[in-house]
Every structure is written in structure tokens, then in C-alpha cells.
Amino acid sequence: MTTPDRRTSGFKNRTRLDAAVDRLLAAVEPHDRTERLPLNMADGRAVATTITAPNPVPGYDRAAMDGFAVRAADTFGAGERSPSILETVPPEDEVVSGTATAVDTGSELPAGADAVVMIEQVETNGEEIHVHQAVAEGENVGDAGEDVAEGETLYEPGHRLRPSDLGLVKSVGLWKLDVFKKPTVGVVPTGEELVEVDPDPGEIIETNGLTVAQYVTRWGGEATYRDIVTDDESALRAAIQRDLTKDIIVTTGGSSVGERDLLPEIVDDLGELLVHGVGIKPGYPVAIGVVEETPVVMLPGYPVSCLVNAVQFLRPAVKKVGNLPIEPLPSREATLSRKIPSEPGSRTFARVETTVDGSGDRTATPTRAGGAGVLSSVALADGWVVVPEDREGYASGDRVVVEDWENNP
After folding, report:
1. pLDDT confidence of residue 258
2. Sign of the CA dihedral 211, 217, 219, 223?
3. CATH 3.30.9.10 is right for the domain spanning 331-403
């Protein structure tokens, strides 16, 4: 099944990262499955239909200040020496010429009134008020629909709903929304050396599949975390075929060119292998394929390599399938405390810890545990610095951008 060339040549020709991502996304189609959810269950979901406001917000003209609702014409010419004198009436009465009624900020403007005099400009005298400053029609009044107009478009399909969006949607009188269902992802950890608990010498506790499944959930997908599959051609083939009902299949381990790295050839036999070997460090033995229109992302087995490639490949794929926007990772600038070497032609992701001094300056320090298999170098890092393919690293003192892969919904 495996060709001698692949086993002996390694990865002499690696696909550039951007080109590899483009090939994957070209094989990914947004799904069209929707569901109707109450607002308290719609946070983070992608809007499936255009949302328009059935009602204006506010639904009535309202007082924008504490004070008295008046007819503006009754205050013309008012001043400190010659105030306008108006009779106060209960809030439920119509404001007619010569009258006023007390209002609070946000309360409905009484019938007949067209302006509000601020409380600071009024002197109360029994059942009368003395207005010391004239107001114009509409002054200190919030018009109906000032916040949201009736029929106004709020969100288009594909918008990722946030808590503030849900509050706005509720304010216009909507209680449920049509959203896209979460994309489904089969997460398949592979490797004959993997165990779930209590490893013997030569065995390793499985962590990649768990980590990837949790990130899939964070990125808006619905992960099915499968049991470990050993390095056996029949078992791996069956595992891929089992999850062809999913929107995406992701495997961990078995993606390189060793004797036990069977997945790329299995995927190529079942469908088409699009990429095998990418100019990315750590993690160049990543592979991408398609089987019966289902994209398959084969992540390397080393934990750091697995994570780096999951963020670069799986994250945008999950979002595209789920109709969610593919946004850049949050980032911040920092000064590098030590040099970061890199390999020209590969995009390097160097894990760093960051500190902030009393003046607010941020410093990034590369983690000393730098190997692709050192999981703690990821768990204890605050982000990574990306070194482009055309650079030979960064020097100590350089200003760099630190990407935060953890806060990447």
C-alpha cells in the first residue's frame, strides 16, 4: 500500500502553509442544516436567516432626562428673570397648553407633550413650576425607534451571536432564532502505544484527541471523541469509513512517513490525498484529504505539533462548515527577551510566556521547553510568536506579535 518513495524521501517538498489551508478550505462546504433555538441557547451560534426588527426600540417617545414634560411653545422666552409658569398635572393627564407633568428618564412622554425641561431648570412652587430656560420641540426626548427602527436589519446569515446581540434581539420582541446547527466532527486518536489510563513502560496516555475535541467545541463544533484506534490498516480504514457521516474527520497520530504511519495512504486509497507535508514548524507531517466529500485532517502525534496544526487547519474548517466567520486570533505586541531561531521556508510557531512591567510594557520570553512533544510548553505558554517563512528568526529586543490561541472562539 505504501510506496517506497514516500518512506525514503521524507518531506523534501513541503506545501506552504497558506496554500495547504486554501486546499483544505476549497474542499469544505458550509452545511445548510438549521434549527430554531430560544435565545438563552443561541449564544455563539451562526445566524441562519436575516433578522429584522418586528418592533421599534423604544416603542414610544420617552423622556431622556428627569424633569417635566411640557409643550415647548409654553417655554418660549423663559429665563431667570421671567420664568414660564405652568400648572402641574398628574402623569395620566394629557399635557395641554399651560400645563406640565413630572417625568423620569426613560418614562413614556405623556400625550400632548413635545419636550422635557430638565429638573435643574425648574423651580417648584406648590402646584406650579417656574421654568427658567426655554426648550425646543423634541429637546430631551428620545423618539420611538431611536435605538432600533421597525423593520431594520439587525443581522445577516453567518453572524456569530454574542450575548449583547441576544439582548438586542430580545428588545425588539423576538424570543427564538433560526441558527445553523453545529458542524459535526469525528475525533479519532490513533497509535498502538496509546492508552487511556495507567500506562506501562513504552505506553503513553492519550491526550491529543481529548485536547482537539475540546477545541472543536470551543470553535463552535460538535465533537465525537472516539476510542483509540491502533496502527492497523483494517482498523484505521474502518474508523475513517465510520465517520463519513460527519462534516469533518480529524485524526491524531499516524500522519508521517514511518512504518506505522498508515493514514495518508489509507485516505488516498479511499479518496484523495490533497496535502502531505507542510512548511510549518512544529508539525510539518500534517496531511489533508477528502473521502466521499468528507474532509479528513490528519494531525501529527506530537502534542505541540498537533495543537499548532489543529489551530491552523481544523479551526478554519470547522468554522467554514458551520457558517461561522473565520476571524484572526487575538494578538498583542511585545518585546522579545531572547532570540527565536527559525528554518527558512517554514512558518515557525514559537511558544512564549509574557510579562507586563509597571509601565505597561509587555515582554515575550520563549519557553525553554521547546520540543514538539513537550505538552507543558503549550499549557504554560501565553501565546506564540509566528516567524514568517522568509525570515531567519527574530533577535532579542525585536518587537513581535504574540497570538493567543486559547482565546479563539
Report:
1. 84
2. positive
3. no
